[in-house]
Amino acid sequence: MASKLPRGTRREPVRTGWLIEKDAKVRLEELAERADVSAAVFLEKLVDSIETTDAGLPVWWPADTKHSEELPIDSA
Fold it and tell me: Residue 46 falls within a domain, yes or no?
């Protein structure tokens, strides 16, 4: 059985309501099982280990991501 965090050690636990592809969920659970932790603990560790750029995005995220809140206007 996967290790869980001790009861009462989470500061602000929330339930996520995201829909992800089944294959991604299965992979996450397999990785967590191999690490002998729950999927939640594995995901938290994964997020904590993400290296980011000066823009605050993961280093592997495409560099051409737009950060502007302006809507694109076609110049026809």
Answer: yes
Q: Is residue 9 part of a domain?
A: no
Give the DSSP per-residue string, 3-69.
B-PPTT--SS---------HHHHHHHHHHHHHHTB-HHHHHHHHHHT--B-TTSSBTTS-TT-----
pLDDT per residue of the chain (76 residues) written in tens, 0 to 9: 666 667 777 788 889 999 999 999 999 999 999 999 999 999 999 999 999 999 999 999 998 766 555 666 776 5
Question: Rg for the chain (alpha carbons), in Å?
Answer: 18
Tokens of 1: 């059985």
Full domain range(s) for residue 33? 20-56
Q: What is the pTM of this model?
A: 0.71
CA–CA distance, 32 with 41 (Å, rounded to integer): 8
